[in-house]
Amino acid sequence: MQPTPSIDELRAMGVPWDIDEVMAGALKLNITFKIECEYDSIKETRVIPSIVYLGHDMECLYIGGKFIGMFTNPTNKPDEMHPNFLDVFFDVANDGKLTFPEAGSRLAITVYNHTWRTSGWFHDLVWVEKEDLGRKWIGWLFAEDYYFPKGVPDFAVENAWAEYDNKTGTVTMIFARLLRQPKTLDTNALQMKPGERWVMGFMLELGYATSINNEGGKYPTKDFVDGWPKKAYPYLSNDSSWWPKIVIDLTNPPLDFSARSSPSQY
Length: 266
Known about the structure:
seven-stranded antiparallel sheet, five-stranded antiparallel sheet, mainly beta, Immunoglobulin-like, 6% helix
């Protein structure tokens, strides 16, 4: 399947859209995320009924989500705005054990109370185990941080779009992740070729980025996160044996997929 209209067309239209129509034919996962938030002496759990959409063509994996009642990031202040985000992670070798360089992506969007419009950006994620300042770091790292100070790599995420309904607090987002990006080979194990069929472990996370730090400002930052099928953050293990499986099959392509547009960022 392909999103209809395409993500590029959604961006050009500049109006609210229905993800059920855009992602018709995609696999739908009904998930309820429960994100525990603690900030400024306030504790709350945001219960977020959600639909996550998964589909692919010969070039991209399409990931969409409708998150009902997510609302804005609870740590936002007039002079400090933090994004909401959706992460997808892959156990590319499908061996139940995360090893460098697994693949992942994040779509992060800043949500505003007064409008359906959002601003956002995306990141590629890589599984890293390393020593830093005498401490062992296990977890997912932004690919650009892994490259630093060498520069920013080409993105495996091709395109993205999102909107916000301030009446219901519903956040809707969609992004396209390239199934192969040779220029990111050293931090991206997801490199499918035409005619291949891959089975991979995968998991999802929904959350709010914060500026709250543990241990006097040392990483990892304490984001507010829940996961599916269960929460794994903060990452204390590379065990992915409990992850569900996703199948991407490029062995029998349909004949009517249109040519891809060039990558872009919003």
